[in-house]
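Why does residue order matter? Because the sequence determines the fold. Keep that principle in mind as you read this record.
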Amino acid sequence: MATTLSIVQLNDTHANLLEHGDVRYSPGGFRVETLGGYARIMTKIREMRREDPEGLLVLDNGDTFHGTYEAVQSRGEVMVPYLRMLGVDAMTFHWDAAYSPAHLLTLQGELGYPVLACNVYHEGTRRLYFKPAAMLARKGLKIGVVGVASNIIRKNMPQAFWEGAEFTDGVRETAAQARKLRKQGADLVVLLSHLGYPQDVELLKQVPGIDLCLSGHTHNRITAPQRFNSAYIIQSGALASSIGLLRLTVGKKGITGIRHEYVTLDRSVKMDREMSRALARDPILRKYAAWLGEPVGRTAVDLHRASSFYSAMDNLLLDGIRAASGCEIAFSNGWRYGGAVRKGVLRRRDLYAIVPMDPEIRTARLTGEEIRAMLEDNLESTFSAQPFHQMGGYIKRNAGLKVYFKLENPYGQRIQKIFAGDGELRADQLYKVAYVTRQAVPERYGREHRGTGRRAVAAMEALLEKGPFRRGDTEGYVPV
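Structure:
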């Protein structure tokens, strides 16, 4: 006899408890709207529970405890009561380890549900750091959930993210956990992954025994489930601006029916009153509300990070870095969080959405050849034809360079020409560059890496004091 189950997918909410600016795709390009927030997520979850009170699962792909000023200042604690209200059943992680894997275990104890990661080990051992999987029960069914954390944490994140932990791509471990769950009588095996959509598709092609993959990390807006190797896969946008709703019919042979709804959390979705009241009274949110709400300048263009190739939001960050450091060339990582800000008044909250950790501005000296090699490496890690060579994120953002490249070329041969200022980048010339975080300029490139003592947000505020920001979607990269 077939049984119906309901699943709510949350992924990459990046601590956006409150409604905020984000982009929607439109015939005229990216359109900035006010979207999202946990009170709207709560409304949809309550609707699902009323319709299927005994059959609902709420699963979170991670990037949950980092992304706003309040989340960083509280080391994720601000999120705990609201995740408990949502009734999440399990999660996995990426930026959630920003305060250390050990602290994530502490947060797990407060949440009342497991953080799952079959591919994370205590450093130097084969002892798992987190629980690899969980068996959940609904309507007499056993639902096995396997967690796979982001596999790039140790490769390109600060040491605090991975201290004491090692990571694999999770393919071998996922296969082992799926077999184990089947032996334990699982009627359904769900993969809860933060590898990214291309990586998850590749994993599903290699690993049998998965019925459904809830994918995170790459912020894909999947409006219809896809299927690979008998497994369905969805991903539901990001930034608490959207969620995914599934209705499954489960029989003896797994999923026999699937209905999916990709829900954009716009103003047509009412905010849950109970959660709205809790958010309004939250001591951490109230502590910083007035300060974050202070106007700090204006922008004459919409700010967002919706494109892999360009970002007006990062142009503001990079121009602030250049002005503060005196360098003509600046780099930042291709982050995907931050939402969007409609042109007009900028508040301090908007600047912290760009870089919630407010990193120190650093400088280094790189040869032109090192800059080329670094950018080639970044193009490969962004667009590699081999999914597990991708690192997630967009193209490394730059100011002061114009990079012409052919995306279809193999690794190391994509860049056709680079200009620095009015002239061509010279391979043997040393260039002083400014940057924020090792994701932008890893230590293996260049020399004389030094801190400036200045912070990113203060640099942007100082830039805005000179007048409205006007540099829009200027292309630092030109595909040819």
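The chain has two domains: 3-281, 295-479.
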